[in-house]
Amino acid sequence: MQFMLLFSRQGKLRLQKWYVPLSDKEKKKITRELVQTVLARKPKMCSFLEWRDLKIVYKRYASLYFCCAIEDQDNELITLEIIHRYVELLDKYFGSVCELDIIFNFEKAYFILDEFLLGGEVQETSKKNVLKAIEQADLLQESGESRSPISIL
Amino acid sequence: MVPVPGRLKRSQTSQLKGYLFISVLVNSNSELIRLINNAIKNDLASRNPTFMGLALHCIANVGSREMAEAFAGEIPKILVAGDTMDSVKQSAALCLLRLYRTSPDLVPMGDWTSRVVHLLNDQHLGVVTAATSLISTLAQKNPEEFKTSVSLAASRLSRIVTSASTDLQDYTYYFVPAPWLSVKLLRLLQCYPPPDPAVRGRLTECLETVLNKAQEPPKSKKVQHSNAKNAVLFEAISLIIHHDSEPNLLVRACNQLGQFLQHRETNLRYLALESMCTLASSEFSHEAVKTHIETVINALKTERDVSVRQRAVDLLYAMCDRSNAQQIVAEMLSYLETADYSIREEIVLKVAILAEKYAVDYTWYVDTILNLIRIAGDYVSEEVWYRVIQIVINRDDVQGYAAKTVFEALQAPACHENLVKVGGYILGEFGNLIAGDPRSSPLIQFNLLHSKFHLCSVATRALLLSTYIKFINLFPETKATIQGVLRAGSQLRNADVELQQRAVEYLRLSTVASTDILATVLEEMPPFPERESSILAKLKKKKGPNTVTDLEEAKRERSADVNGGPEPAPASAVSTPSPSADLLGLGAAPPAPAGPPPSSGGLLVDVFSDSPSAVAPLAPGSEDNFARFVCKNNGVLFENQLLQIGLKSEFRQNLGRMFIFYGNKTSTQFLSFTPTLICSDDLQPNLSLQTKPVDPTVDGGAQVQQVVNIECVSDFTEAPVLNIQFRYGGTFQNVSVKLPITLNKFFQPTEMASQDFFQRWKQLSSPQQEVQNIFKAKHPMDTEITKAKIIGFGSALLEDVDPNPANFVGAGIIHTRTTQIGCLLRLEPNLQAQMYRLTLRTSKEAVSRRLCALLSEQF
């Protein structure tokens, strides 16, 4: 996967995860164009479209559009399921997730995404394992260990 | 940036927030990375899986070159170490993958590669998933290193596919066992050619199971279930197509896709159309794909979603072949009328390519292209209309039709500029072919073109000016009118330099040059050498690396690899095949002299040896070709898949010069290219041919020229034979054609008045001097064309000599070195019976006979 974008019906970007190195300017340009293209699609149209030299897979959940850009040889249907799995994970974690949850807890959303996908590839497909890992990280944060290696900075 | 390290330091529990900050906000090239790298190193070294995991995530998220330099050596070790936790192994694998993608040179292959392959057997499916992704990417650049993964992947895959739904527990997704892993394993298998029989058997079983499962009723109504199941199915089909070796599987896959073509869900229809495109290029399943043509055409007409319609167009293009070309092109044209503007250019290119490739009848091709211009003129790029002009010039039989069609099309009140360009060019070259008809007389043609003149862009006007000067040459009666136009102030003082220059020069040329010189300067365009269709190149450029044509070539390359060893390059798929070979019945020249010895005497034939001294029998159909050249001097003499021979000749009295052009139609060199002129024993003393040797190496796509100096010593009946031998690839090629040097080439037209004609006619009244032939007309009996042929034959056409105006009368002198022979001819047509009577009277019997025979063939 090259990148994943989450945006609302009004075109506001809620989450962006880039798996390829691009400059800020390019990212903004791509986001703008893609958001326009996807928002222009009608409801009954199919979930795939060709854009530049990439394939775009998108799905709308309530007020949020989940949009992934994959390469030519990647499997589109499985990407749809990646999106769905991610939504399931969010749902399980936040309990009936809605857009507000993602806005206010975006760092959790990113963590969950990182446990699920890494470097653009699916890492762990077991829902249990992903959620377990997130729980552990949460615990770590809450317990507030004093010996944090990052203090060496 | 300064407060950041402070913040990280102060809030110790914000390690996670710190990493998040880094991965989301810090640009790959930030200097802060160096500081961060240190911290990461420490985290990696700690044995705490959470810290290690976080560190790996950070590396994977940023993935900069500095990080790669720092960690690319470490991570493989972590990956294969026995005591690493599963979750860390997963992260390590994907982290390595990310680093490899950004800096492949910094990730060296090593001992760890074989251990990574064994991760495919790991218990933890998460580890297997991550490892499979890693291996798939690495294997593309280093296939040898990871060859062993193929059998492991195959067995893993079959275990998953055949497992019950409770086996894999949490890895079962809506009743589909480990769909992501299955898809990845299938993708890994696509990096390699079909495996050895042992593994292949198991793999085939596995694929069949997947195909079978697709037919079973679904275990859940949820769309997730069907999506996951179908994701595996589509990937399996991709693998089947990639292997392209099991006809049974291919046909099954095709049928499955056929079912999906009419599925309720748009997504599945879209994917089915897409997958079928690749299936269409496999020889095993091409026929099966064609059976769905009606469904696809229906989809094209009724689908609401433009992207699905676009896939349907692509599929039609891929499945097109000779049997359904006309239907498909017609459908694509009607779709074009309502198509989205963004995709029009691509459709135009595709239609142009299909029309050319599968044209049996070139009139259809001309119609299609003109339709294209009419429907979507703006999107018809230059390559397309250049090509149609090239083809019309190269093929005589379609020139008249093209002129007529273009003339009619131009009469439309609003026609596209591209049509004016094409029309202008074609009428300039071939307007004479329709000038006989009063509705398309020269003046009418000129007025028609000129009426569009002011509406056109500069480039088109320049082209039209060239057409006007050609008209002056073809139709002297229009000279005054056209000169008037050229002389107009708007041309001679035109702001555009090109137009002004052309107007001035053409005006001068028409005033100063005699008709001969004008005729030479503005002679008909010689045929173009065949080369790769630029349209194909343009389409490839537009579509990018994954067009169907590319897939075909890639397949061919891959199969060459699998078979091992160098193969002689097949006739390149890129050079446009020439259906004219089929039209004229020439076919491919026989590669080795295996045929029966030819009938004309005096030729060297050695049927059993492969030695270069043997001469191939005359290529079939060379008689027809020969006849075409009796009345004209330029054209394509012979063409097959490899070679094209063009001629251009000029004659003066008893001397002549012929330029023979040999065009290499392939992209491979011809070696030891030797053309030889062979004159039979009877011919030898009467015709003298001199030529210089030709360069024995002819590069791919190149054209070489040979000059032949001809002298007619005395009258002759037979024709010399041109024999060409060369090596192409590993094969030895041998082609023979008759060279159209005929007696009438040395015919000089003589004008004479009616009295003189009848005087001489009476003088030549002895029976040996007259030869008469009554024959059925082979071609339509058109007066203009007949006149043109007689003039082309070399004779002067005498008007008002014969009391019957329908008859044609001609006179001329045959020049030889030794003597000059006067010839008179009279051609009487009988339209009702569609027959002719031709009478030839010359002072020498042999000449009369030969000329009569030659000329009779022309009508």
Question: Can you walk me through this structure?
Answer:
The complex is a heterodimer of chains A (153) and B (859). Chain A is built from 5 helices and 7 strands. Chain A is an alpha+beta fold and 153 residues long. Chain A has a 5-stranded antiparallel beta sheet with strand order 2-1-5-4-3, with helices on both faces. In chain A, strands 6-7 form a two-stranded antiparallel sheet. In chain A, helix 4 (106-116) packs across helix 5. The longest helix of chain A is centred in the middle third of the chain and has 19 residues, at 76-94. Chain A is globular. Helix content of chain B is 52%, strand content 13%. In chain B, strands 11, 12, 13, 14, 15 and 16 form a 6-stranded antiparallel beta sheet that branches. The termini of chain B are far apart. Classes of the chains: A alpha+beta (153), B alpha+beta (859). At the A-B interface, strand 3, helix 2, helix 4, strand 7 and helix 5 of A face helix 1, helix 2, helix 3, helix 4 and helix 7 of B.
